[in-house]
Design a protein that fits this description.
By secondary structure, the protein is α/β, with parallel strands linked by helices. Helix content is 40%, strand content 17%. It has 13 helices and 12 strands. Strands 3-2-1-6-7 form a 5-stranded parallel sheet, sandwiched between helices. Strands 10-11-12 form a 3-stranded parallel sheet, with helices on both faces. The chain starts with a strand and ends with a helix.
């Protein structure tokens, strides 16, 4: 099978990390040939010896990038047996169909299908017309004295100072992988209060694979990932605090959680993905 992967590669987002990891699995298989089309300057796409990467011009549309289907893009589409739109380049699907009638695969929880007007609402404190208030740390302080945020030098830190809870919150700069995973592995819970409709939720997978339960917002693909190893809550401060306290009061089997993460998100799912694509060709 010849699979063309479309991903912008501009941001080192969770979606891009998950895409890279999935492609690394695909690249190990003998029955699939992969080529990637990315934006010019898309430096965060996985680079391996047996995966060719092609770059095309992109332009901004609001908060999004859109690819320009040039002659290189057309040649790649004609080469492919199937298309996988891995991150947010769904506008190119119509161009793919005009060039060649191919199956186009995208994740169920991809951004545009959930939020078709997100390029307008993004940056205006809303998603699909719904108000997306930041986590009100002062309310969290009233219910529990846990450490909630691990972000340094951002508006979140300023918000904590404004509400007078800065001393109860530790803010860390970007951590290297070893420190990041050691910190997560030592936690009693990972809180993922995303206001964005996450296409996947790689942080939740990392946490569960380390045996740490997740408190996640009911956005995008997070509920699908969390399963029974944590709780999913509405995006309201009181609900998040209640979810944290509930998880801290539960007992989880770490070995069982690791097995769940491996079985649901491990290598065998790459082969399942290919079988689904093959049925569409």
């Amino acid at each position: 099978m010849r699979l063309l992967v479309i991903t912008n590669g501009i941001w080192y987002s969770g979606a891009q990390v998950a895409t890279n990891e999935f492609m690394s699995f695909l690249a190990k298989l003998n029955n699939v040939e992969i080529k990637v089309v990315s934006c010019l300057g898309g430096k965060y796409v996985l680079s391996t010896d047996n995966v060719e990467i092609y770059r095309v011009p992109c332009w901004n549309v609001g908060a999004l990038l859109q690819m320009k289907p040039d002659s290189i893009f057309e040649q790649l589409v004609r080469w492919a047996d199937a298309i996988w739109i891995a991150t947010g380049e769904f506008a190119v699907a119509k161009w793919v169909k005009r060039i060649k009638m191919l199956p186009v695969v995208a994740h169920l929880h991809s951004y545009e299908p959930i939020c078709p007007n997100m390029w307008f609402s993004y940056g205006f404190n809303g998603v699909c017309g719904r108000k997306c208030s930041p986590l009100l740390l002062t309310r969290c302080k009233q219910s529990t004295h846990r450490i909630f945020a691990e972000i340094s030098g951002t508006w979140v830190e300023a918000l904590a100072r404004r509400y007078g809870v800065g001393r109860r919150v530790r803010f860390l700069n970007k951590l290297d992988d070893e420190k990041y995973f050691n910190l997560m592995a030592g936690a009693r819970a990972t809180v993922m209060p995303s206001v964005w409709p996450e296409t996947f939720g790689v942080v939740a997978v990392e946490s569960i694979s380390l045996g740490v339960p997740v408190v996640g917002s009911n956005m995008g693909g997070i509920p699908e990932v969390v399963g029974g190893y944590g709780v999913v809550v509405p995006l309201q401060p009181e609900e998040i605090v209640e979810g944290i306290l509930k998880v801290l009061g539960e007992t989880y089997n770490r070995d069982e959680m690791r097995e769940y993460a491996l079985s649901k998100f491990g290598f065998k799912n790459v082969e399942l993905f290919l079988r689904i694509v093959e049925r569409l060709i």
